Amino acid sequence: MTARAARTLSLLLLALPLAGCAVQGVQSSLQAAADQSRAIDQVWTLMLWVCSAIYVAVIAALAWAIWRRRRAVQREGRTRDPLLARALAAWVVLVVGLLSWFVAASFLADRRLHAGHADLEIRVTAKQWWWQVEYLSPQPDQQFSTANELRLPRDQTARIELLSGDVIHSFWVPALSGKEDLIPGYSNAVLLTPRRAGRYRGQCAEFCGLQHAQMALDVEVLDAAGFAAWRARQLAPAPAPSDAHALRGAQLFLGSACASCHAVRGTSAASRLGPDLTHLASRRALAAGALPMRREALRAWLADPQHAKPGNQMPQVPLDPRDRELLLDYLMGLR
Amino acid sequence: MNAAQREQLQRSWADRPGLVGWLTTVDHKRVARRYIVTAFVFFLMAGVLALLMRAQLAYPNLRLIGPDRYNQMFSLHGSAMMFLFAVPIMEAVAVYLVPLMLGTRNIAFPRLNAFSYWVYLFGGIMIFAAFVLDVGPEAGWTGYVPLSSSDFSPGKRTDFWAQMITFTEVAGLCVAVELVATIMTQRAPGMTLARMPLFVWSMLVTSLMVIFAMPSVMLASTFLITDRLVGTQFYNAAEGGDPLLWQHLFWFFGHPEVYIIFMPALGMISSIVETFARRPIFGYTPMVLALVATGFLAFGLWVHHMFAAGLPPLGNSFYTAASMLIAVPSGIQIFCWIATLATGRPRLAVPLLFVLGFFALFVLGGLSGVMLASVPLDLQVHDTYFVVAHFHYVLIGGALFPLLGAVYFWFPKIAGRLLSERLGRWQFWLLFAGFNLTFFPMHYLGLLGMPRRVYTYPHGLGWDAYNLMSSVGAYVIALSFVLMLVNIVRTLRRGDAAPDDPWQAPDLSCATASPPPAYNFAAVPAVSSRHPLWADADATPCAELPVLAGVRSDRREVLLTTPVDAAPANRWAMPDPSPWPLWSALALTVVFVWSIFDQWGVVWGAIPVAVAMTAWFWPKRSEPSLGGDA
């Protein structure tokens, strides 16, 4: 029965890479879309097949050991031990050889993760429980800041500097590369060279407290033109309120608790405690992926920030429902 | 040995009757039995936590358990499984078996042994009581700073965790010291190092590892507690401390820890394979060398838990090579067991079935461990469900399956009754199926990007079906343990009585009654081969076991032998039962708990500890001096 179980197991193991094609996971390491993740994927493929072969061989040997036909004289005792000793030596040589192959493959792949010239510098600072994303530039007027979203140009290498604002987090976009921790007092970095345009998802991978589960990063890889256009839009200050409702909403925003934590470029709100909201409505999600970017979701979020993401640091700001609608008018115009 | 002498032995070694005897016993078998039962109770409690967590994760966006409680649950699940179940249960089995396998009458430092049990019991109760009172750990069983610092984990939760972990480690250290001393000085005459059963070898290496690894975690948690309680800044980057210091100290302990859990299991497997293959283990010497090599290598791997921390790449690659190297001794042992089975005459009883399950699961977990040793691959799957799958395959497959095999194997020796083979087979297959249903899909979840330690997850990432499978599997595992409990309760009520040597095992533990009398052996057995109960390599039972006369039976006397050759060297009068280990443990518990709330607790609490320990070590006027006077 063990042999049957082993067979099923090994079949399952071999079926995995095939099954991987069926799921279009935006957060899957099996859908490698960058140089770095592809280098890792090659190591994975190598190890999966070699390890599967070893597994099948060991289980087959075990099954043979248990169920092999024994000679009429039931007692072989230790007569075969010298032969077995030679087989053991051969086994050790085989294992050491395979492991050396793995070590070499890992070392070479690891070098590829660190090789490359950065075309673009981005600083990501992780905080409980959101991502502050700053696009850096030698010219101060070419810098801008956003939150919980990362857009990258295809075929260019971005160097992402990783800092922490509080506890240890881990930056991980499986489709693009492996993870790297963000540690207070340290500055780490990863290189990302995406090769396929599309949307991906990243998520904090080091347990960081209450809302570790809802600390997602929305990632999009754009072609060069698309990225340039997005960058130009982000560099612009927030659009002015378009009507009287939104104008009233802006006054509420600046006059209430909102402005003491959030920045909206082009207004007097400049605090960096919470996420930058300059182009809030152009993002695809709220609260680091906890809610979709829609008016009703934003309304619910403002009414009770602790419902969708209990424990997060956004306080409930008392507003009567009419004022909340005005504020929503303003925020939904921040495109 | 005549009946009068046996009666005298019984009088010298018996505990006082009733509750007093229960509280004062220093008999290694009684202490080990309650250790084992306690550890299984903690195991079941930590298992219930796992069931609750799997219920919360069965579907996306469930709100059965909130983030605060969930985080406490997985933190306690990990802490309890590692510190209150896995390490203590292995040590407990050894406390029972090692003196029997060595042919001696009690463990060395028997009062320390009793003390360690009480410390362990009180520490464990405190940890679970804190959880019930909403003061459970919340920063994971790894307790990374700064998440576990007072800025991000205010209140007493982490204090309780850190203090009680340090506390229960004291128990683990005590047992390790006893086992090393017992193995080095109390082996039966003639049992040279090269004739020791492999289980004893594995416990010797494990105990030495405990002695070197535990201080590291005690240091780490003591730094943490002083950072939190008295404002030291060991881990605070802003004040010149370093959060990575915690990780180095923790994993310098944490990685050997998994081998501390796994090594005794290797010894159990060797005992089971040898007995049920009905031939001596093939490759005894390579097996011993593999154990020792694993013990050394285990201390050189810890950085592979920190590949994502941004350490220098060349250093990381060194740890890749070191981590992969540990597959060599594991491979040697796997080979030797299979070779033993192939050239023996295997008998598929339940203990061997669990060992076969071990092969199917541990080899898989070991291979995924080789994958995790690779820096680039680890960067993808580190801290995901792939790792959760990996360590459950190595810990459940590698340690729990052999442990359950050991339970079926040694239960008759300990309880004097034979467990039902039929229920045993049912339990095995349910557990095997449930385990794979629970943990195999987790590999895939990790590759699909699901991080560990999340209390919920969104729909639409391709994770839903695998999570549901996993949750169903967890309840199948639970069912298998219900069967085990049924089996044990039924057997204790009306099981068949076990003979002295229920499985025709080759070691000395089967040279005495089941269960053994208080004095273990009426006469000191003398050993002249690795298999004292087998006459030849075909497992033919010995007609008679040679014994050594001259050890007194009118007092608690054991024979001490030399460390390498086990030549008789001395006779030693073992301590009598005493209530003071219990009082010392209680007083120490008070110190540790008090210190959480007030640092002066350490000062004032030390007074009762000093009193209790003074009473414990107070020399008895009538106690005979060491050496021979006869």
How do the helices and strands line up, and which of them pair or pack?
The complex is a heterodimer of chains A (335) and B (630).
Chain A: H1 2-20, H2 35-67, H3 81-114, E1 120-127, E2 130-135, E3 144-147, E4 149-153, E5 158-164, E6 169-171, E7 180-182, E8 188-192, E9 198-203, E10 216-222, H4 224-235, H5 244-255, E11 285-286, E12 291-292, H6 295-303, H7 305-308, H8 321-332
Parallel strand pairs in A: 1-5, 4-10
Antiparallel strand pairs in A: 1-2, 2-3, 5-8, 6-7, 9-10, 11-12
Helix pairs in contact in A: 1-2, 2-3, 5-8, 6-8
Chain B: H1 3-13, H2 18-24, H3 28-56, H4 67-102, H5 110-132, H6 157-185, H7 198-230, H8 243-277, H9 284-297, H10 313-325, H11 327-343, H12 350-373, H13 375-381, H14 385-415, E1 417-418, H15 421-447, H16 464-494, E2 496-497, E3 524-525, E4 547-548, E5 557-561, E6 568-573, H17 580-597, H18 600-617
Antiparallel strand pairs in B: 1-2, 3-4, 5-6
Helix pairs in contact in B: 3-4, 3-5, 3-16, 4-5, 4-6, 4-8, 5-6, 5-17, 6-7, 6-17, 7-8, 7-9, 8-11, 8-14, 9-11, 12-14, 12-15, 14-15, 15-16, 17-18
Rounded radius of gyration of chain A (Å): 27 Å
Order of helices and strands of chain A: HHHEEEEEEEEEEHHEEHHH
Q: Quaternary arrangement of the chains shown?
A: heterodimer
Shape of chain A from CA axes? elongated
Number of domains of chain A: 3
Q: What does the overall shape of chain B look like?
A: globular
Instruction: Specify the number of helices of chain A.
Output: 8
Mean residue pLDDT of chain A: 90
Poorly predicted runs of chain A: 14-23
> Structural class of chain B, please?
mainly alpha
Helix amount of chain A, in percent?
Answer: 40-55%
Extended strand count of chain A: 12
Strand order of the largest sheet of chain A: 3-2-1-5-8
Enumerate how many helices of chain B there are, as a single number: 18
* CATH fold-level label of the largest domain in chain A: Immunoglobulin-like
What is the architecture of the largest domain in chain A at the second tier of CATH?
Sandwich
Q: What's the CATH H-level superfamily name of the largest domain in chain A?
A: Cupredoxins -  blue copper proteins
Radius of gyration of chain B: 25 Å
